[in-house]
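User: For documentation purposes, I need each entry recorded in a consistent format: the amino acid sequence on its own, followed directly by the corresponding structure tokens. There are two entries in this batch. Please keep commentary to a minimum and don't merge the entries.

Assistant: Recorded as requested. Entry 1:
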Amino acid sequence: MAANNTTTQEQIHQEVLNQENYIVSLRRHFHKYPEVSLKEFKTIQRIREELDGIGLPYINVGETGVLATLEGGKGPGKKLLLRADIDALPMDDKTGAEYASLNPGANHACGHDGHASALLGAAKVLKNRQADIEGTILFAFQPAEEIGAGARQFVRGGFVDDVDHVFGIHLSSRNELGKIIATPGPTNASCDIFKINVHGKSGHVSNPDLGRDALVSAAAIVTELQTIVAREVKPSDEVVVGIGVLQAGTNYNIIANEAIIEGTVRTFDPDVREQVLASVERIARLTAEAHRTSIDFSNYDAAAPLINDERAAEHAFQAAAKIVGEENIITDAPKSMGADDFADFLAVAPGIYCFVGTQSSEKTAFNHHHERFDIDEKGLLHAAELHVTYALDYLENPF
């Protein structure tokens, strides 16, 4: 039995290796022509063309999402969903690579170009094995992960209702090429994106008593929000309250009548999440009042905490061990305060979100969301092989 398993994995490895040029060329195409969240029109059109070429039927999900289906030749069985996100970030590309972005202000600086190409490569391999598969594999090419708006299009549209299991992969420049991360339990935090509009009253800076300074008020709010983690939650709670945007003022001698604050709350505990969001609004409102201003507060629930299924983590460990060896699998990676809306899929069906290392040099060591982020493209083959191996193993021995 062991010899047969080895032979089978060697065959899968070779089949994925045969797709290397296909996968890499697709990744470079997507990297060269990135599109930001909910604007992935040309990206999804290229994906549709590839699916047509592979011979997989698909349906559109929203304007820029696609769900393709592979029905196994051995009849009905379990239904597994494999997911890749496809959107880019709104930032310039400074990699200097030959495949650098040609779309100013858009950059695949998180690796989603690799996610899409690896899953398409896996789809080709799985399609060639269709006759030997029992069950159904769905391929979700999802938009708008970066703004937490894509996975819910699949979930709220009912496209995942009858799915038994879900699986996803994220490339990771934090981990060395050849490493695969399969961690059970909580791995990524929730994400709330809040916005605070501060309303004041304009005037000349030489008469501050006649105005209501929204800029000073906003600055005070930003400062006071930092006390939430330090003074309102337990030291053992894992919480981030981060501010990414503060905009105010139109000229050096005008009291600002409006200011905008945008930030995020990250945590792993639903009760702590609710408590902290309430604190953000309360502190902002009372601080604004102290400065004779007022606020409007809004929040967008972008992602729930991402919690991997324990059995799925063990299944992923076994699948990954066939590819890179047990010694190269990390099962106790530290939790990340970064969020991913793959959590929406996990809220419907059990599964796991794995990470595949892509760092092999200084060039590929830049963090995600850095303008010089790049990957060692050999990691794409590990990702594609993991998709294939996990899918075949799960459908043969579902749990």
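Entry 2:
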Amino acid sequence: MFVLKNAWSALTHHLWRTLSIVIVAALIASASLFGLAVRQANTAAHGTAYASQQVSAVIRPSAATMAKRNGADPAWTKNYLSWNDYTTYATAAQTAQLQFTYSFTESLPVRQSASFTAIPGSAKPDPKATGGELTLRSFYTKDAAAANDLGTYKIVAGKQLDYAGQDKTGVLVSQQVAARNKLKVGSELKVGDPSDAAKSYAFKVRGIYSYTGNAPKGYGSDAKLAKDNRENVLYSSYYAFGANGFESSTAKNWSVPDLNIMFQVSGVSDYNKFVKIVKAAKLPSTHTVSSPSLEAYNRKIAPLGSLNTKTDLLLYIAWIAGAVLLLALVGLAMRKRRDEISTALIVGVTKPRIGWQLMLEALLPTLLGLAIGMLAGGFGTKPLGTALLKGSDLGAGTINLNAGIIWKVLGLGLCACLALGIIASLRALLLRTGNLFEARKEATR
């Protein structure tokens, strides 16, 4: 009790120093909890979660090829892959015993009519050169719609496409196009054939959609050609596309459908295997294999990776700076204590007892700071992580604490507190008793 009373007296006598130790210890503990929680979430996102997801793979023109694209040149359709091309790649994958499922989209330009017009682009070429001012895109399944390279969309009026039925006329139109043409669900519209201006097709508005994200560069309001503005896209089921005769093996120029098959494989390792198989099957140099799902996933977790980079740096700074500050504060507390220690030894107090008092002077504030930091980090990590990731596609609670992190920080914190206590106790244990009565000026060093 005597030792504890003396330690408490020393701590309260130098209150600012004591509070500084508490604050520094608390900051280190809370920062450690949060930083390690962010690191764990980032490791999981880039590790098991990344490797185990279902991966979509598509074969599309490379960026270099797309940079040369001329939407007003019908010869561009020579860059389209045919069913025969895709069959070659699928057969090669099956031969290599790679399991996959598939879905696809088919697109082609269609012409506006007198009663149904598109949102104009900045360039206004002859429809004979572009195939039309609108784009008709069909989806084989809802998975193909979900992987739409123009962006995901939601239905704001009417119904979603019927992928399994036999609806020949149902299409989805954008809110902007619907407003421009004063269309509503059930309204009829006509579009013209991309190669034959005299031929038209009748459709009915099944639903009205709006996109849920920003448009890819060159496919929004910045589109030069009207058909490239994604707001001018009519979405249909594959049945409606084929039933109206757009699926043709003898088509030429812009009447050739742009076929995009999406392969679905199990995991990143299978995707990497698929890429090698397709390349070995003589993939044209104008095309490349990519994964919309992996790209979307990487975009999704990018904010977490960025946060982890920052918190990792701050974590090391907190550990190093915090350790230096605590050592300095404890060292400061041990300065000019020789007279006090010498007097205690003269009156019969043993070195171990004095060392225990000095250890308590270091332990009490660091343990209190550790406890406060653990509570602050425990209750604050999740809401702080949610706030810092606000606006990203990551859900709330992505950054969470678990027992492993808590016990790790607590264990290391207790060891650090004990180490500081031992360092403080050495001030008494290493004092040379043979010099107790030397000159006072030497005793105050």
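Summary note for entry 2:
The beta strands are 54-61, 101-110, 134-139, 153-158, 170-174, 188-192, 200-211, 233-237, 258-266, 287-290.
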